[in-house]
Amino acid sequence: MRQTIDLMLRQGYRYRDPREAHTWRMLSGERNFNATLLRPASAAVVVGHSGVGKTQSIRRSLLTYPSQVIIHEAFPQTVSQHAQVVWQSIDVPPSGRAVDLAAALMTEWDRTTGERQFENLLRKPRRDGAKMLDEWRPVATCHFLGVLHLDEVQNFFKLAALKKRVRRGGDAAAPELSIVEDMCLRWLLVLMNTWQIPLLISGTPDGVGALTRRFSNAQRFSTSGYHVIERFESAADRGFREGILAQLLAHQYVQKKLPPTCLDELAALLLELTAGIPRLLVALWIAAHRVSFSRSKDDSLTLDDIRKAAATYMAPVGPAVRALNSKVPDALSRYEDLVPRDDVFWGRVWSSSLNS
Predict the structure, then answer these.
(1) pTM score of the predicted model
(2) Which fold has domain 238-313?
(3) Residue 291, Ramachandran bin (φ over 0: left; ψ between -120 and 50: alpha; else beta)
(4) What is the rounded CA–CA span in Å between residue 143 and residue 82?
(5) Where are the domains of the chain?
(6) Least confident residue range of 16-20, 39-43, 65-69, 166-170
(7) Which pLDDT value is given to residue 169?
(8) How far apart are CA 133 and CA 122, in angstroms?
(9) Choice between 268 and 205, residue whose per-residue pLDDT is larger
(10) Regarding the domain delimited by 2-229+342-355, which CATH topology (the fold level of the hierarchy) does it fall under?
C-alpha cells in the first residue's frame, strides 16, 4: 500500500510539472489546452471490514512523508513563497451529500495549510454543493495536491430497509445500494480525468463494491492498485501469531498471567470471539481485564475471563462475529458492511504485477 501511494503521488507530478507551460494552461482552464498531455486517471482502492486497520495503514503510510505541506521560497510562475500540499485525507461525511463533502474538504484544507482560504464560504447559511466543490478544486490543483484520500466511501451510498436489501431472486450476497448524490461520483471522475489529482479511496466491502459495480468506474478507481485488508482467519497466521497475539500477551496487567501451555487454545478462542478483527481483538482483551479486575481476591487473567467479557461487554457485536465466522450469505446479509464482494479479479491483477 505504501508503494502504491508513493507511485501515484510521484507519477502524478510528472504530468503536473510546475516548470512546464502546459501545466499552467491546464490549471487556468485554457480552452486550447492540448488534452493529449493528460495522464490516465490515477486511483487506488483499499477495502476491508470495519476494524481491520484500513485507515491506520493508510495514515501511517502518508505520515512517512517528511511534511504534509511544503513551503517553497521560490516556485515557478509565482512571485512569493508557495505552499505545496503533498496529501489530504478526509472521511466522506455520513450524509454522502456534495455540500457536506465540499465542506469537509474545505475545513481540512484550511486546517492543514493554516490559512483561511474557505472561511467565508463555510460561513454562508445557504450552500451549493456543486459550486463549493468547484471552488475547492482549483485551489487544490494550484497548490499541487499530491494525492487525495477519501475514507469511508460507503457513505456515498444509502441502503434500503432490511427486508428490501436482498435482490429479487434470493441473492443474499448482493444487497441493494443506491447513491445519495450522483454529483459526488461524477465530480471525482472529473477530478481524476481532467484535473490529474491522484485519488485513494477506502471503505467497507459494500461501499467499494457499489462504487466499482460499473466497469467504467472499476477501471478508473483501480488503475493504480487494489488492496484487500483481510481479517485474521487462522490461528497459524504469522501476522496474527507473531503480531497482534504477541502484543496482547505482552500487555497483561495482572500478577498471574496466562500460562504458555494455553497459547493454542487462547488463539483459537480469540479468533472465535472476534472473527479475527483487530479492533475487536483489542477491545476484547481490555474487556477481559475488566472482568479480571472485578475479582478482589484473585489477580489473574483466565480464558474464562475472556469468555465472560465476550458474553457481557462485547455481547452487542456477537451476532455479527458469528455471521462472519459462519460465512453464510443469509447471515452476512443482515449486516450491509459484512457482505462479501468479488475481489478476485483485481486482487489477481495487482498480486501478479507485484510478483512479476
Answers:
(1) 0.82
(2) Helicase, Ruva Protein; domain 3 (1.10.8)
(3) alpha
(4) 8
(5) 2-229+342-355, 238-313
(6) 166-170
(7) 44
(8) 12
(9) 268
(10) Rossmann fold (3.40.50)
